[in-house]
Write a structure and sequence with these properties.
heterohexamer; A alpha+beta; B mainly alpha; C mainly alpha; D alpha/beta; A: MetI-like fold; three-stranded antiparallel sheet; 20 helices; about 55% helix; disordered N terminus; C: mainly alpha; MetI-like fold; 2 domains; two-stranded antiparallel ribbon; 17 helices; about 80% helix
């Protein structure tokens, strides 16, 4: 504030010592109080930002997906052994296609005598259902059978995760050139490197990445020479002993450059094996691995494999459910509000209805789930997991919200408008439908949309009426089994594999986009029709 | 009647009526003193009376200003309005009474002291009656008493009779002694003035009647009095 | 033909027919009224349109009632008929199995691509079912049409110059509106009835007191139904949530309504509302993925501090604290927007009054605005508590499953809602104590939140009345 | 009660004497109004003349507005209100259940304390009444009704170029005149005004008063007012209400210069306390 | 000045002033007619004048009622208030003028037709002057013209001179011919009445001055006129 | 502008002439007020006398309330308002940034259009101001302050038995008097009143006017009023505002009987179009 001396000069009797002392204290309290408010808002905003960042961070990887661009020879013996050329039969023959893919992969990457574990490692880079699109494509154009076609085959989610930088912390180190090498691919190789410094650097990196606190397992290094990959077993001075992993089966020539990929975790502690990493790196070096927009997220239905799971069925399920909800809650809610606000006689019954509606709005949503389970499913015998029941439950759930919002909108219309209409000889109903309702419409619609948004995000009651069921098909109608987005999110979030996490986050973002859209509409409505009386 | 919620309003009204009563008292004393000056040929007194008119005039200006102020700022209604408008009339009437007294006193200065004693006596008697009438009129204003006001109205007839007889008497003296024509004319004017004072006292009573009842006193009779001086034509 | 009727989407067709009938009836009624008025429509008691509406109403209302009844009872009639026609041996199966048998028939019959199963009796019954459904539909439609025609002529016959068509139409509208309002009440009745009914069934098997005061909960195994640990978990988490939400929400509201410039307000308010718009399942995911690990790490760190006994904090991967914190964040906007409302409802004149006395802003807020808004704020907090108690997804995902009583917020706790979800998710039979216990829990939850809500709503109402 | 009755018959006869020849438009007989258990109006009888302005004055809560609202049965819209007694208008008792209040209100227009135009265009504000009552059969006829009503309300010149602008965009005084025009549009016979100027400033008030004075030539106008001065300015007859009773009724001039009843005098002169 | 928003207010004010002007016109004609009746000894005309006073009185009652009505119902302020209060004074003055004319006419009835022609001529001349003064006063009321009002005030001196000379003249006649004392006294009273009418006309002018400016005309001079009749004492 | 200035100097001098001896309490010099870009008050200078009532009148939107709120810097609480010019009170310019509005307002009390008692007991309503300003050091002293304030506001007799009852339970007129008592309690020197009777009926209004008349003996009172009649009744000085300018300022009696300015006359006589 002002200094007393300065104040004394021109403020006359307004500033006395005593008053100034009090004032200083009072202004201090003022500043503190204001600070609390700013802090509170700051915390709230930080929480929101953290939430969004953590989810977007998680989700970002799920929106792209790595595929292997693979020239596949469609062999009839695999895909259509009976030569029926029947599209359905071909499409259903997933195992045939799978076998074909595996055999061709094996041809390319494995030696004849590769043992079953290595085979499994190779096949494990793709999920069984990854061939589904190939089967469908082939079934659609059977003439391609017998020819070579290029397909994008989805890599398994762990590989995908590795490619996106997940699975294990890692570092690439250039180790210099080979001075001398001995040994064989089968028994192990010992290389002597040209520069001790480079080896020391490799060793330092290994130590650096080894985490002592958690697993107490040392970091490992995969070595690449040309296109061949080895695993570093031991290192002594300038010499390294390696075992072969993948790639051309030959010793690195002298003077060949060696690179190391140091991984923090050994393969026992991660979901991707050393060999799979080697293959992946080879394929990547060949430019055959591409990152593509993960359309499966939108086009596919649920799946037990994260890389194949999509939200399509849930989106359609949500839409169907919302349709039912809207058809129940909006008209009934508006009419009920009109009745209560405009027509209901003011008596005990009406006030009971009022209290009841207000209370209903605050009843936990899960109780509505119990209601749905008891009444619609147990008592009325409607099927589980269908949008009709879900919609009815959510309809009842948001009904009070719509009623309250509509009533608020109706109350906001000044009574003078009603009396004005009555004054020129309009009936009560005319005054309501000609004047009050049109004026309240924007508010009512805003309330309805906000109610629908709430229904769209609602999860708990739907769990209880079985909408958590696994649904692989896009539902056709309100009586088809289906799930909805939030339930899908819940289900995915409980998935055991780490790949479900980004997937869940991605589904959340899909849901949030819908919600944001609805709220935007509500805001626009409100802005557009905002009215002052 | 209860006081106004805004006591300043009541105060102002009361102040106004006190002022009027003061004016009235002054006028009353002027009547008596003027007639005494005539009777005793006391020129000093006459000059005093003349001087006193000035205060009545000042009081009237003040009262009138108060009345305008009341109407402009207080918006009196109903009884208050009538009281204010009545006060306006009263002030005018009393002021006129003052003027008339002054006139009598002035005429007294023109007399030579050896007028017809009978006529002078008549003037004195008449002035007593008029003074009494004025006193009663002011009294009924003070008490807002319409019965008394009616009495005042009736008293006016006597005064008119007084005047008529005095007029005739004086005319006779004049014819008898033409030298006295000048002073007798003054006496006649004095009587006439007294008669006018009586009329004004009557007007005061009527104003009181209006203030209290909101109605004018009934037409014809009042009016004939308003016009004032038929008496002498009889 | 019966078969086609059995499959056609008759509902839509009927809808169209009824709508057409309504339009026609409206037109006829209106024309007739204009005829009666001979051009002087202002002489009519009601305007011609209302006569039209009246006839339309008279036409559809009876048809709609009949169709509604058919929707309600049509299927049971058909089923009763089928049941009567089935051979004796099947009828002898007993009610439950008979019902299931007919379920299968109806399911088969209504499948569009149904093929013969080979079971002659079943196929015949299935065909018969289709026929009966078709027949009943024809009958219902005929009845509806008849009723509509009757209504139409009745409506026309009522029209006259003095006829108060408007009043009648408005009565109809009011009745419709009333029905809608009644649905809200029916919902509550439905909730109470279903919860009470199932809960009573549960209490017929499990002692009420051992449920309410028991401290062991092993519902999945159907062994113990002592709900105290659940209550404890519920309230502990709600308490933690309020610890976060109450001060932050309240201070935000005060800052926004009293201090913030309109610009800041227009930015911050929607941001806070955004918090309210995020589905709880998202919060659950956030709690599980982000907050729970931090809580756990912090607990581990604290455990590692000197002078802290080993295992002082449970440091579980899911914890009451994680759920409570996130729930608190979720509830902030409830507290802030409700408080904001009540604070704004305090008339500006009161603030002006205080400012004019020479009070500073914070003095005004603390001594004038808040005391005036206090009942409303308390109500807001109560509603928030009720919300916290009933919140499901966050606790389901982040609080854990273990029914235990421990003051350690880093331990995993379970709540009423978590247990309800756990007990009722997936296919469940409605006859086991395990399932029924969920309803008993639901009943308790309902009652508790009801009490909070009722108190809060009452306070709010009183408060509103004061300033309106 | 008895005293009041007695007094009333007296004032009624004097009111009649005041202007013997004016035709009676509204004849209220023994009106009682109850709000729940509370009696708001006690046995009021009053005859309102056609083609003149009758003002109701009295302290707040004296029942003047309540009584006004009996005349077009606006009290029907208040749940707890109960009205007994008879109100004859052109020989028909409007409190008869057979009378449709909606139709009655088209004959007894009302203007309220706060200007309350519909948030629609000026044109639609006026046209609404005629439209629901079927008073105009075509666009041209409706245009005429609108213009006439606005002219009568003295608003035509001010708004003729913006008939489609919203009525709520007008100034307070204009809004109130719009409401009057709206009431006029359904050709009422009686116009009730419930403190029509209490929300307006002195200038707008004067304009409304001027309008009321003009309308008096065609309509029977009843006005409730807070301000005695206004009653004095605009009305020909004044009724003074107190505690739900009619204390005095008569020519405005007489009421303001020479009221019969002490309580009227006290109220008018500011002695009520 | 622009009209009031409430035109009825303007109408009422205008109606009031029209009424006053009508009264004024009537009074003017009465002055002329009364003096003509004296000059030509036309008793019919005299009786007609007496009768006409009744209409002035009625108009005054009406004007006064209108004024009370205006104050009670319209609450005039500022200029309007002054106009109304001024009108009240005007009405009173004009009414008095009417009374005085009636008095002249009545005295005319008492004459015998053979009075001193010179005196009668004097009355006639004086009445013309007075009538002219009144006319000018009314004119300045109509035009709210304060310059004209000031002229009217000046005119009063002439009339006082008129009166004084007439008074002395008549006194001389009376002494010369005592038989004519009666009728000459009447003539004196007539002159006195005319002088009073002049005073009232002056009052009208002063009222106009007040109405327009809101200020009373400056004190002393005016007051001496109010008291009226010093002239004769000279 | 120029014309106005010219006129103003003229009226100011005349206002001084009206009552030469009264001491000046508030001296406003060249006040301008802007709301955003809109100028609400244009160069108003005005001297307000101590121990008298000064009324501000004018049509709505003329700036009279805005100007009033300059005197205790209530415009500071409106974001967009900007006030320039100097207001001297006892020699100190209160618009000086060094003056704390919080202290200023304890010396310049304010009463608002709608009675706004705090939702506390009657006692606490009065005690609030003294408490925040530390004007009473103990319970006994505070009791005294409360009683004195209530007495001065003429409310003591009516409420002394229910000091702990909520202030909002009083009638409208009593509430307004409570607000006046509350303003008095911090011993202000100036009391501003912004249409203090516009929400009250004539009887309550008369009581407030009576109170204002009594308070005049101790305080400098400035009142904004909608009603010319009220200004006429309560004030000694009247200022007429129009379109944000001061048109005329002078003795109330003169303003209402003989205003100098044509616009004042037109407004007062109801000729404003």
């Amino acid at each position: 504030m002002n200094s007393p001396s300065e104040g004394a000069a021109n403020t006359g009797s307004f500033v006395t010592e005593e008053a100034l002392r009090r004032l200083k204290k009072r202004h201090g309290a003022e500043a503190r109080f204001k600070l609390y408010g700013q802090l509170a808002i700051g915390i709230a905003i930080v929480a929101l930002v953290t939430l969004l960042i953590s989810i977007f961070g998680q989700a970002s990887s799920a929106f792209s997906r790595h595929v292997l661009s693979y020239d596949l020879n469609i062999e009839a013996s695999y895909v259509d052994p009976e030569r029926t050329r029947d599209p359905d039969t071909i499409a259903r023959n997933v195992s045939g296609f799978n076998l074909m893919l595996q055999d061709q992969l094996a041809d390319e990457f494995l030696s004849e005598d590769a043992d079953r574990n290595i085979q499994r490692e190779l096949y494990g880079m793709f999920t069984r259902l990854a061939v589904l699109p190939i089967a469908r494509a082939t079934a659609d154009s059977p003439q391609t059978i017998g020819s070579e076609q290029t397909f994008n085959v989805a890599l398994a989610d762990d590989i995908d995760l590795f490619l996106k930088g997940g699975v294990s912390a890692r570092k690439s180190v250039a180790v210099g050139v080979v001075a001398a090498g001995e040994g064989s691919v089968e028994d192990g190789i010992t290389l002597t490197l040209a520069s001790l410094d480079a080896v020391e650097k490799l060793r330092a990196t290994l130590t650096e990445l080894t985490r002592t606190d958690v697993d107490n397992a040392p970091a490992v290094a995969l070595m690449k020479a040309g296109n061949t990959w080895y695993r570093l077993e031991e290192s002594e001075g300038r010499s390294l002993s390696l075992t072969y992993l993948a790639g051309p089966r030959m010793l690195p020539s002298n003077g060949a450059a060696i690179e190391a990929l140091v991984l923090a975790q050994s393969q026992e502690n991660r979901t991707v094996t050393d060999r799979q990493i080697a293959w992946t790196e080879i394929l990547r070096a060949q430019g055959r691995i591409k990152s593509k927009l993960n359309t499966t997220l939108f086009t596919n239905s649920d799946s037990t494999y994260p890389e194949l799971a999509g939200t399509a069925a849930a989106i359609v399920g949500s839409l169907l459910t919302m349709l039912v909800t809207a058809m129940l809650a909006i008209p009934v809610g508006i009419f009920a509000a009109v009745y209560l606000e405009e027509f209901a006689p003011k008596n005990k019954l009406t006030s009971l209805i009022e209290v009841n509606i207000n209370n209903l709005a605050a009843v936990p949503s899960i109780v509505f789930g119990l209601l749905g389970a008891a009444v619609f499913i147990n008592f009325m015998g409607l099927p589980r997991s269908v949008p009709l029941v879900g919609g009815l439950v959510l309809g009842l759930l948001v009904l009070p919200t719509v009623i309250i919002a509509s009533r608020a909108a109706l109350t906001a219309v000044p009574p003078s408008i009603r009396t004005a209409a009555l004054g020129v000889g309009a009936s009560k109903t005319q005054s309501v439908f000609h004047h009050v309702l049109p004026l309240a419409a924007p508010g009512i619609m805003t309330g309805a949309i906000i109610g629908m948004a709430r229904a769209l995000g609602e999860t708990a009651p739907l769990l209880l009426i079985g909408m958590v069921a696994f649904v692989a098909e896009v539902p056709d109608g309100p009586m088809d089994e289906s799930t909805v987005l939030p339930v899908l999110i819940y289900k995915w979030s409980t998935g055991a594999e780490r790949a479900w996490e980004p997937q869940t986050a991605a589904a959340i973002i899909v849901l949030l986009v819908f919600l944001v859209l609805m709220n935007l509409i509500a805001i626009i409505l409100r802005r557009r029709f905002e009215r002052r009386w | 009647m209860p006081d106004h919620i805004v006591t300043a309003f009541t105060d102002e009204l009361e102040h106004l009526s006190a002022n009027l009563l003061r004016m009235g008292g002054l006028a009353e004393s002027m009547i008596m003193d003027a007639s005494r000056a005539v009777a005793t040929f006391d020129l000093e007194l006459a000059r005093d009376v003349i001087k006193r008119d000035r205060s009545i005039d000042e009081l009237e200006v003040e009262a009138e200003r108060a009345i305008i102020r009341l109407i402009a700022l207080r918006h009196p209604m109903a009884g208050d309005l009538r009281a204010v408008l009545g006060a306006m009339k009263l002030a005018g009437d009393i002021e006129r009474i003052g003027d008339l007294c002054k006139n009598i006193a002035k005429r007294c200065l023109e007399l030579n002291g050896d007028e017809n004693r009978a006529a002078v006596k008549g003037i004195e008697r008449m002035s007593r009656a008029v003074s009494h009438q004025l006193q009663m009129a002011l009294d009924c204003y003070l008490r807002q008493d319409i019965e008394a006001a009616k009495t005042v109205l009736d008293m006016d007839d006597d005064i008119d009779d007084h005047y008529t007889s005095l007029f005739r008497e004086t005319l006779t003296y004049m014819m008898e002694d033409p030298r006295q024509i000048g002073s007798n004319t003054h006496l006649i004017f004095m009587a006439k003035n007294l008669e006018r004072i009586g009329d004004h006292a009557t007007n005061i009573a009527k104003a009181v009647y209006y203030m209290v009842t909101g109605e004018a006193t009934t037409g014809a009779k009042v009016e004939s009095r308003l016009s004032g001086d038929e008496g002498e034509q009889r | 033909m019966l078969e086609t009727f059995g499959h056609l989407p008759v509902a839509w067709l009927l809808f169209a027919v009824l709508a057409a009938a309504a339009f026609m009836a409206f037109y006829v009624g209106r024309t007739q009224a204009v005829g009666i008025a001979r051009g002087y429509t202002s002489q009519l008691n009601s305007q011609p349109n209302y006569h039209g509406y009246f006839v339309a109403m008279a036409t559809i209302a009876p048809a709609a009632i009949i169709l509604f009844l058919y929707i309600l009872f049509g299927e049971s009639l058909v089923r009763a008929q089928i049941a009567g026609e089935l051979p004796e041996r099947i009828r002898a199966l007993g009610d439950l199995e008979l019902a299931q048998y007919i379920d299968r028939i109806s399911e088969h019959a209504t499948r569009r691509d149904a093929l013969a199963t080979g079971n002659a009796l079943f196929d015949a019954a299935s065909d018969r079912y289709t026929d009966l459904v078709g027949l009943s539909r024809i009958a219902a439609i005929l009845l509806a049409v008849l009723a509509a025609a009757g209504g139409f002529f009745f409506g026309r016959s009522r029209l006259s110059g003095d006829f108060r068509a408007r009043a009648r139409v408005e009565d109809g509208i009011k009745f419709l509106l009333f029905l809608c309002a009644a649905i809200a009440v029916l919902t509550t009745i439905g909730i109470v009835a279903s919860l009470l009914f199932e809960a009573l069934r549960f209490f017929s098997r499990v002692n009420v007191f051992s449920f309410l005061f028991g401290t062991e909960w092993n519902a999945q195994t159907g062994a113990d139904f002592g709900a105290i640990p659940l209550f404890f978990g519920t309230f502990l988490i709600a308490f933690l949530a309020m610890l976060v939400a109450a001060p932050i929400g309240l201070f935000s509201a005060i800052y926004l309504s009293e201090y913030a410039s309109p610009r800041v307000r227009s930015i911050v308010k929607p941001i806070l509302e955004l918090l309210a718009g995020i589905p709880t399942v998202v919060y659950g995911f956030f709690a599980l993925q982000f907050v729970a690990p931090i809580v756990r790490a912090s607990a581990t760190w604290i455990n590692g501090l000197p002078f802290i006994p080993d295992g002082f904090l449970a440091a579980q991967p899911t914890s009451a604290l994680a759920a409570g914190l996130v729930m608190g964040i979720m509830i902030i906007p409830f507290v802030s927007s409700l408080s904001d409302d009540v604070i704004n409802a305090v008339p500006q004149t009161l603030r002006d009054g205080a400012y004019a006395m020479g009070a500073t802003k914070s003095e005004t807020v603390k001594q004038v605005v808040m005391p005036a808004a206090l009942p409303g704020v308390i109500a807001a907090l109560l509603l928030a508590v009720s919300r916290a108690i009933g919140e499901t997804m966050i606790v389901v995902m982040a609080a854990g499953q273990r029914a235990q009583i421990t003051p350690d917020p880093t331990a995993d706790l379970t709540t009423i809602t978590v247990q309800i979800v756990a007990l009722l998710t997936g296919d469940t039979e409605f006859d086991s104590a395990k399932t029924l216990s969920a309803f008993a829990l639901g009943f308790v939850l309902f009652i508790v939140t009801l009490i909070f809500n009722l108190i809060a709503l009452r306070v709010v109402k009183k408060y509103r009345e004061k300033y309106e | 009660m008895d005293g009041n009755m007695e007094h009333f018959t007296q004032t009624k006869s004097s009111a009649r004497a005041d202007t013997a020849s004016a035709p009676i438009k509204v004849d209220c007989q023994n009106i009682d109004v109850y709000y729940g258990d509370k009696q708001a109006i006690e046995d009021i009888s009053l005859q309102i003349e056609d083609r003149s302005v009758t003002a109701f004055i009295g302290p707040s809560g004296c029942g003047k507005s309540t009584f006004l609202r009996c005349i077009n049965r606006m009290n029907d819209t208040i749940e707890s209100a109960k009205v007994t007694g008879k109100i004859f208008m052109d020989g028909a008792n409007i409190n008869d259940p057979a009378i449709d209040p909606v139709l009655l209100r088209s004959r007894v227009g009302m203007v309220f304390q706060k200007p309350n135009p519909f948030p629609k265009s000026i044109y639609d504000n006026i046209a609404y009444g005629p439209r629901i009552h079927g008073l105009a059969s075509g666009k041209a006829e409706m245009d005429e009704v609108v213009e006439n009503s606005l002219r009568k309300a003295g608003l035509w010149e001010e708004v003729k170029d913006r008939l489609l602008a919203p009525g709520t965009g007008l100034s307070g005084g204009q809004q109130q005149r719009l409401c009057i025009a709206r009431a006029i549009a359904v050709s009422p016979e009686v116009i009730l005004m419930d403190e029509p100027c209490s929300a307006l400033d002195p200038i707008a008030t004067a304009k409304i008063e001027e309008l009321i004075d003009e309308l008096r030539e065609r309509y029977c106008i009843v006005i409730v007012t807070h301000s005695m001065q206004q009653a004095a300015r605009v009305s020909q007859k004044t009724a003074f209400f107190h505690l739900g009773k009619l204390i005095e009724y008569g020519d405005t001039e007489r009421i303001f210069t020479n009221p019969e009843h002490g309580r009227t005098q006290d109220y008018i002169t500011g002695r009520f306390g």
